[in-house]
Amino acid sequence: MTAHAIVYAPIGQGTRSEQVVERLSNAIVAGLLHPDEQLPNENELSRLMGVSPVTVREALNTLRARQLIDTRRGRNGGSFVCPVPAQMMHDRHPLRLATPGDLADLGELHCAVIGHSAKLAARRSTADDHRSLAQEIDQFEAAKAAQARAQSDMRCLLLLATHAQSARLANQELEIQAEWAPLVAALYPHGSVHAEMVAAYRRLQAALQAGDDLAGSALALDMISTQTDHLLEHKLRLDATAPPPQQT
Question: What GO MF terms are annotated (predicted)?
Fold first, then answer.
């Protein structure tokens, strides 16, 4: 199972276009679908995702309105992924909007999904899976911009979930990433956090390759817990520097 197979997997007959929008927008925000990448055509999306062409057309119209895709005409035309709008990733800072309880709760859910994914991945990953994750970790280490680091981080996590060979876990991870990706992007201007996460991924990769499911699960839990702690600390700093509310 590949990451793209999760994005385009069937979501059930009769589902509303909002669910198609959510699936594709989550993949775009998380960086699984890259800028300028061409989506399958409407008929192919309809077949892959198990919904009607009308539902797909409505979903693509919504994604265009949100500036997540654009349509190009001509022989090589079609629907193409746009760079994530800056306001979606940065305006109204998501850490300012989240409460500490929200962050802790999301972190706990993410720990549950990634911790179990790592345990299963240690048992089920193939040699090709190990190579693909190692290559993605290399790309994560090489990324320079905060958003690129966050998106590469999300691709590593989604690969981990797909290597667990559980479609439900992978779909749950993709849903979580819609909230998680904009949050962790706030951490990655800091080279120290980036280096810390790269090292965490290297340790996790070694455990998975050794087939050590207990160590893999523990390392994955620690990695997400560490990110959650960094997010809580960063939120405290943001709140401390926020201007006082205006008197009316």
Answer: DNA binding; DNA-binding transcription factor activity
**What is this structure's pTM?**
0.74
Residue 16: pLDDT band (50, 70, 90) is confident
Sign of CA pseudo-dihedral 70, 94, 101, 218: positive
Q: Is residue 21 part of a domain?
A: yes
- What type of residue sits at position 28? I
For residue 171, give the CATH number of its domain. 1.20.120.530
Nearest-10 crossing angle of helices 127-142, 146-163 = 170
Beta partners for residue 38, in sequence order: 80
Rg (CA), the chain: 19
| Separation CA 7–CA 23 (nearest Å) | 6
Domain housing 57: 16-85
- Both tokens assigned to 138: 């290399």
Last residue of a domain, one of 85, 111, 126: 85
